[in-house]
Amino acid sequence: MGKKFISDYYEHYKPFNQFTVIGLETQDLFELSNGRSYHVRIDRFCSDKEGNYYICDYKTNNQLKAQEELDEDRQLAMYSLWVKQKHPDAKSVKLMWYFLAFDKEMISERSDEQLLKLQAETEALIDEVEKCVEFPVEVSNLCGWCRFQHLCPAFKHKFEVEELPEEKFKDNDGIKLVEEFAVLDKQEKEAAAQKEIVREKLIKFSQQKDVSVIWGTEHKVSVRTMDKIEYPKTEEFEKLLRIKGYDVFTINYSKFLSKILKREVDTDVLAQIKTSQTWMVKVGKK
Ligand code: SF4
Q1: Residue 149: inside a domain
Q2: What is the domain count for the chain?
Q3: Which domain holds residue 55?
Q4: Is the CB of 146 under 6 A from ligand 1?
Q5: What does pTM read for this prediction?
Q6: Is residue 13 part of a domain?
Q7: Does residue 142 line the site of ligand 1, with CB under 6 A?
Q8: How confident is the model over 135-190, as pLDDT tens digits?
Q9: Closest residue to atom 6 of ligand 1, CA basis
Q10: Quick one: which atom of ligand 1 is closest to the CA of 137?
């Protein structure tokens, strides 16, 4: 994919004489109010001969963004405040995204009024973040870029054990418990899969032998069919029950289900309900 993105991009823009490149992966800070600053890191920063400036961002997403989404994008728009401050001669500042998987460029631009509003909103957001006293853990793909992993409850144990000398590493309680739990979890899953196979065999056995209880040395297993009732767990269904005179808050569901089986329920309600047969396989002592 990487090769294709680069060769498509190269074929599209060669000989690369549309713009003059002013910076790549810029490193600067745009000063906001109260001593705060916004990190400006532009993939490619360029200008053309007419005095327009371009903030270019490269995307490898496998989905194109909608124009409205780009017109609402904060990151590149904030960079244009920095460009306007550094280059007051700018005729315009265009935000440009290259969606490499589609060999497509998309552009957005902000008015001065929009940018002032965005700056105020961003500063308010910083205020909100700084006032936070609780920081619930939200593990996501972004954690890989997080500089606070060593403090974060989701990662700090990893840092603690990585620093341990080899002889202490294996004795760490956390490590031992994790490995023990992983083994038990695997055994539990394997046992559940094996249990399902044996359950199916018991059902077959009871059908072939026409028996409802199968006797072992210390245990016995009863095998019988039972009715399975499924009704929609939706607001519409609750509404229908109410219309038909059932009080959904006080309804006795076991009585209701037995009425369904006896087909003593209103036909419109019955039409929404699926009934089928399932097997009940229970083990007990002899
Ligand atoms: S690693 Fe960083 S981003 Fe991820 S949950 Fe922890 S604090 Fe949040």
Answers
A1: no
A2: 3
A3: 2-131
A4: yes
A5: 0.59
A6: yes
A7: yes
A8: 889 999 999 999 999 999 999 999 998 888 877 777 888 899 999 999 999 999 99
A9: 152
A10: 5
